[in-house]
Amino acid sequence: MRPGISLIKGLSVRKKIIILFLSLSLITLLITGLVAFVTISDIGNYAEQSSSALGVAAVNDSTVALQQAAESNLMRLATDQAEITQLSFDDTASELEILAAQAVSLQNNPPFLPIIPSFTRNSPPNDPFRGTVVLLAPGSTATSQSDEYRTLAGMDDLLMAMYRADTELTGIYVATDSGIMRTYPWNGKTEPDYDPRVRDWFIRAKNASGPVWSEPYVDAAGHGLIVTCSRSVPTKYGTWVIATDVTTDTINQNILGLTLDGSGYAVLMDSGGNVISRPGLSAGNTTWNEAFATDNVFESTNPQLVETGRKMVAGMSGIDHVRIDNSEIYIAYAPVKTLNWSFALSMPASHIVAPVKTTESKIIESTRISGEHIDAQTTRILQLFAGLIFILVIIIILLSVLLARIIAQPVELLRQGTVALGKGDLDFHLTIETGDEFEMLAHSFNTMAADLKQNIETLRRTTAEKERYAKEMEIAKEIQNNFLPEFIPEIPGIELAAATLPAMEIGGDLYDFIPVTGDRWGLAIADVSGKGVSAALFMALCSTIIRVSSGAEADPSVVLKHANQLIYADGRSSMFITLFYGVFDPAKRTFTYVNAGHNPPMIVRGDPPNVGTIEEGRCIALGVVADVSVTSAERVLEPGDLIVMYTDGVTEAFNLQDQEFGEDRLVTYLQKHRNYPVQEIINGLIDEIRRFCGSAPQSDDITLVIVRVL
């Protein structure tokens, strides 16, 4: 072994830390100081020279570059904004194509009952966004009982969906040759003598093969100045016209709201030279049944402006210099191709040239100031850096000594502790009060010794506790199963099956089949809030209450009110239950039901099968408030009808990608298997959910009750 290495090896930990830390710190400071001194000097010289050179070059180039860039930038902005305008209007036209496809689809399908209701002009809903308004034009022979009237109602849900998807729309509506008009959202400002069939947007759409845009006009529904995109749809009832409105204010804000330092001016013009939209354009005192006088570029007395307008309506793009009121104006224009419109953006020439002189003087003054500042800062930095290095050397020496002392002493105490622990002294206590990781390590050491003594006893108790818990859960699961029907009853007129699959050992879902007075049967499915033991106990209570409340009462709404009072009275658990309860009358083949906050059951009917939801008779969950208000709903069932009642564990089953099973997959499965025996449908659906979830854990209880009418 070499003498140098042998000397270091013989030193204590404290001395090794002092030597190593001090050596590394001093070497680092010396190298850093030398490099910084050279680098700062070079940077200062280079920055001063570069600043002077850049100042001279900037003064020479700024004038020419600014003028050239202004025209290029203005043209680019006009072209970009024309494309943005085109995309915005094309999106609206595309949305109408979707509605048109829906209108065509309705012709070959039975009338579809929309989710949102419709109202007349004089019967407003509580929320205008929760309903459509239906108008009948003067002289219309259409009635609410006509086939076209009912078929047209199938457009309501898509009108609402399209309106909510596009926030720029003021309203969306469909009108017919027979004088029917349905509009979303509801608006009661339209006059009784309003007839959509004589409006320009209706007539132009009938004469066109695709979407068309109107000129600005005053809206009859009180939205001010608007433009309308309309699209005709030939139907077996005659022509339908689907249309949507966009206010000129919206166009100004979202499409034409482009200004350059407050000096830009944007205009949208159609193929006839009419101004579609510009800042400040408004309806004034014009009413809806009066023609709105639009601005037209060809009516201008300025020949240069008229010439620019001819280029724009010809679909050209470019930039013109036009003199208006003794001021030179740059006008950049570009076509909005699919609409055969044109977009223009103007800027005063004075706005472009004025900054040149100001920029020149600022650059010269800034160059001089920068040079002086760089010299002063370079000298100051060098002085500060030299003083800082000296101070750091002193601090490093002191810290090296202190650090070695702080580290070495706790290490020695820890060494003594490990020796004692190695000899089997589990009562050895280590005391280190440094307030840092060494103290935490000493505490961990003491804790480890104490834990070792308790380990065997703790392991024994834990094993016994787990066995006891497992046995109790088996008993709880057996008790819970006793609250569910022991067998599926044979009910005349229906085929019935049910299944439940708890997410944990025990769950909070329940179903029941309850004989009701008059040879009727009550069918119930419910979901208690929460999971596990608390949910299972609350489920048992609710199951008993529901069975007691419904045994002698045939009206589901009375059963629900009575059950809610009993559940709410026992409100110590602060839990609630969602419940769907219906009474089947085999003699009349009717199904009377209520829904207390539960997932609406699905009903499969027809061939090919059509899947809908049972939405009527709804109220809030039981146990939330002392009294609930609900009215029973009734359906007359038909042979072959399939009613599927389920809890949210079916549609909200998640796979490893955090995707839920969802209603769409449930609908697809029911359409494909609707003719299978109901028990096979349930078994197959549970297998389908398991395949979808894969190895992901079951997130909620799954319960199904399926009824087929024979």
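That was protein one. Protein two is written in the same sequence-then-structure order:
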Amino acid sequence: MSIFDRFERGLLRRQRQVKRIGRQTDRLLEREFFQRFGRLWHVRRFVTVWVLIIVFLMGGVIVQTHALSGYYQRLEPAPGGLYTEGIVGAYTNANPIYATGEVDEAVSHLIFASLLKYNNQNQLTGDLADQWQLQDNGLQYLVHLRPHLSWQDGKPLTASDVVFTFQTIQNPDAQSPFVNSWQGVTVTALDNQTVLFTLPNPLASFPASLTMGIIPQHILGSVPTAQMRSAAFNTTEPVGAGPFAINGLQVTGGTPETREERVALKPFNNYYGGKPKLNEFTVHAFASQTSMRSSFDKEQISAMVGLDSVPAKLAKNKSVKQYKMPLTAGTYVFFKTSEGVLADAKVRQALVQGSDTATVLSKLGSNLIPVDEPLLRGQLAYNAKYSQLAYNVAAAQQELTADGWMPGAGGIRYKKGQPLMFNLFAQNTSQYTTVTHDLQQEWRQLGASVQVYLQPATDLQPTLQAHSYDALLYGISIGIDPDVYAYWDSSQADPRAPGRLNFSEYKSTVADQGLEAGRTRTDAALRVIKYQPFLQAWQQDAPALGLYQPDFLYVTHGTVYGLHERTINAGIDRYQNVQNWEIRAVPTTIK
């Protein structure tokens, strides 16, 4: 038999096997599947139950896995990202010896570092300095710099830069607005890392002055002092030792109403506190709150500065974060004591007693801290014994009647033909609008006619400078130290006084002596005693009505990790640890 015949027979045999297997398969499918499939209807409930059990178990596994993921994962911040902060104002000067506006101060504090700064507990701590000592009964302060400090151009920062900074401020040709604060202070470099400040008189609050940014002598030392205010260094070429360095300036808009500036900053790699975690920080200056809010709504900026309240639409947005930081400042109604009906101490006392400050504060919609003295609650030397007169309408009316102010036409009181009438000026904000309206109504019940004038910030400044008001609703920065000499000493009521910050034009020999004695003592217990006559005089003379500590409101898209709500002295203190700010969140497995 040939090989071909054997192959053909094998093929036929396999074909018969395949046909046989096929017939067996058909019989099995018919008997075991198709015939039994018809019986499925009779066991439908049994099958349905098992299907539901399987679905339930699978769903439970999915839900449990999702729920337990929170125990094994969490969102944590990560370095990187671009951050843009919107501020209403204009960028004109980053040089710390000139920076005064909100935009300028923001840029200055990001680029420049100071000898001292405030920590998270609002206590003075070292910045460029790592330690300082009080010497010679409060007349000298010895400051030691940190080792290996450098400017953003790589040059070393030494004690000579510190001396140059403050001597430049003291030079009238430099035209620094801080010149009066440094008159009579001698600044000496003992070596490359040690600076000695010698004061003409003891001043307990002096260390707070060392939060001024330091400028580089190797760059500005060759600039004539009279030309320093216009140097390119101040705007496009600043070089500091702070956490961020200048990276660019963009200006848009052809009119004051549309002008905007964007100051782009990059991390300073050799910053003593560590390289900042943000890749870029931009300060965006807007001409108005309207344009800033529009940009925020479009998520073109990360944060907003300068609002006194959050619009209802934003408040409902869960992705918008509000940071409210109490300021060591006081909002007062300052009564001009030098002329008009408010020169009468009895009238001022009655106005204080006739003011329901608790109700006024409750309408502002936030947990504001009340102010009832020239010092803040919890501050050194504050004493509740000397709080302003308590709310008592009946007592206020009796006070006015006893002083000769009698009810007349329309319920207005008169004394010798003169109506109890005065004006009240304030900035045109939502908070101040509420406060002035309520006070106007309350004082009307006493028989006083009050005309309220709400002005935009630009128009209010001439009013402040000229003291062209009868009463003024305004906020003053006090700080952590109780030295309030600038606001209440008689010398500061003089039109020639720097800043002329005694808005009440208050003059009292007793108060002056207490203010002077309190600020020149360095022993805390002794300062408390020395300030008491001032507090007592202020209570009796009622030169102002204390209202509340304002909040600094910071509004952001999402959480800014590293930024915490805490008491601060000024808005720029939000940057205390800006090098640690982070805005990105990534899931991390918990180990």
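The CA atoms of residues 18 and 24 lie 10 Å apart. Keep this in mind for the problem set.
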